[in-house]
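Narrative of activities, Objective 1.

The group set out to show that a structural description can be obtained from nothing but a protein's sequence at a throughput compatible with the screening campaign. Below is one input-output pair from the validation batch, recorded exactly as produced.
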Amino acid sequence: MKNEILNKIKEYETIIIHRHIRPDGDCIGSQKALKEALILNFPNKKVYAVGDEIPDYLKEYGAIDEVDEHLYINALVIVLDTASKSRICNNNYEKAKFLIKIDHHDDSEDYANINYVDHESPACASILVRLFKEWNFKLNKEIATCLYLSITTDTGRFRYRGVNEEVLTNAGYLLNYGVDTDMLYTRLYIKKIEALKLQGYVFQHFKKTKNGVAYIYFTKELMDKFNVTKEDAANLVNCLDSIEGCLIWVAFIDQANSTQNIPSEIRVRLRSRFVAINEIATHYHGGGHLMAAGATIYSKKEMQKLLKELDNLLKKYKEDNPCVF
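Output recorded for this entry:
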């Protein structure tokens, strides 16, 4: 399958790279790395990267191109880090002549002509490094930096399950290209004062369900009060990751725009320790990894239903595993 992907890349003059909605570090860095690697190794090809807005702290590692619809007719589209069709950003991918998917999610579905999925890999970028090595691709510092960012963010700075010899070897391989890790980690860790103040609010006002699901709801009013963006708020989900007895933590982020008083959509960021929560995410227009998933709900009633499901899941897990933290 790896050679099939390379042969398709060689075959097409126009290649358009897509990613998922609400982009994270892995899909953003992987997308730009693939684009730049294709340009470097096939300078005569036309390569584009499309998607929605990139969060400020990741803009250095991302790319967004304007692509006319007619270019898709004879193009190869490669979709990165996207488990399901519903999460692909920009529906123009459907017009492509040939579609390739490269992904690593546990709940990944086959929707392309070629579906290359490695559920064991903790980051899509690590799969790309594997492919680049096997294809003998030339790389440079910019490409390596984007890939290293992707691996770093999706492995929780190399802390999550799935980090194995290949992942660490790939990260070391990328460092040989001169990745400035001081600058990279600074961009990831530095927060605006407003976000830090909101973080303090989270510590004082988060709630817990009966069995230990910790959660916070970022309403539009709360985000306006602290003058933070929705992405700033969403990035605070892991503030709740170290509470004793709370093996599941959730951030609800109101997606209402400035003209709405009632949220039409609430983004859900789900995280856990030991407990698989991605199946429950699929019940609410979402999915993802076993212990890191996303979802979308449309009312406080749905919020309570989701929290109840998570609480019951955690109750059963604690009954079966009484010694967990």
